[in-house]
Write a structure and sequence with these properties.
The protein is an all-alpha fold. The protein is 74% helix and 0% strand. The two termini are 38 Å apart. About 3% of the residues have low confidence.
Amino acid sequence: MPDGVVRAHAWLCVYHGTVLMFTYQLEAAEGWLQAAEKAIYPDTESVEARAILGWVAIVRADIARVLGDLTSGVALAYQALDLLPPTEPLARAVGVMNVAHSYLADGNVGPSVERTAEEGTAALRRIGNLFATMISITNLARLQTAQGRLRQAKVTFALAEQIAPGKGRVGELLNGAAYHIGLGNVLREQNELETARHHLDLGMDLAQGMLSVDAEVITLGYIAQAKLSQAQGDWAGALALLDELVRLASMRRFYGPLSSRGEAARAQLWLAQGNVSAAAGWVARSGLSVEDPDLAYPREAEYLTLAHILIVEGQSAQVLRLLDRIQQDAEDKARLGSVIDILALRALAWQALNDMEQAVDSLKRAFVLAEPAGYVRTFVDRGEQMAALLRKAQARSIAPAYVTKLLAAFDHPTKWARKPSRELVMSDGLEPLSERELEVLRLMAEGASNREIAETLVISIGTVKKHSGNIFLKLDAHSRTQAIAIARQHKLL
């Protein structure tokens, strides 16, 4: 349509802006939303004008969510709900869905917030919008994960299978990436590593083929994949994934705390490897301090990383004061998943201070919350100091079955675990890729699907899959995401 015709009709401007948002042309989308506001004629009925302005606010909320700015997104969603008339049930349901993301901004996962998320999911299912329903279901499951209710989260994720267009076809829905990544992260925490690898790889491959994916989802995907690689002994692969996340967050202008979260995860990995100096370097660059007055929830993961590094550096007394403040906020807002992690860190801090009674007491309190939900990696990923503390708990017959299960996870990596890729770190001695494989790899890195790669290179989809398999084999990668990260590390792209 001629540009002037579109600009003369507010609804056309809204539709155009919406499609641009879904294809990650966010600045252009905002331009058309502004055009929609200008195109509302003075004689337009107020109900229609409110509907148009409400949809504009909804799309702006979606843009903020895609960038990870949940505070702005929630405020815009409330604005939309104030504007939208009852004749716009889909828009109102999407508004409630965006409001239900508020816990990602303030960390409050209490009963009222969960009810809002449940109401939004129910409304969208009644309307029959699969895309928004998938966002709403995965959001509710992630909220339950933050509550520390991993088993209930898995039940909620299973709803996605019920609304998919056919058995095992969740990936065909626009938000299938968020489903697989969220479920994969829960399975990783429960130490179901093989199944977690399947879902995380599938989720990240789906995300690579989409232009518009929430920054929160992408960040969770990279960090969960990196933690899984660490759990399977692939330290180089884990580091490559986190390097790729930091690069992508900068390129796509992720909301500040999300970019920082990737850097904190990398520091945690360095600490797990015993590279304390690199982890301490992150502390110096981060500007974080145990005395910071505002411990905003979006930076909670950074402060917990800071706490662990300071414990290793012998500053446990300061760390305990910091953890007191974070734990109080987590308990007040029903964030029991965070409380479990905080109690594990408190146990390490008391152990470093040689107060074993306090250390074991912190562990016992963590077990009360963690054992029914099936938590494993929160403890195991804390390293040998935690293993030593668990052995002391075992000697005192504290939660014997659960402690035995946790200690076994230190000693028995999944059968899919790969040997630490020391050669990958020390040299570029990878089997070289052919020119065609490099072409396929470059298109993968641009987010092209197998069909798009086939059309660009004028080859069959089967040939694309064959080249992809060779690339994964030569780079020792499980998925597109990991292959791209390793390729960047070795300057192949």
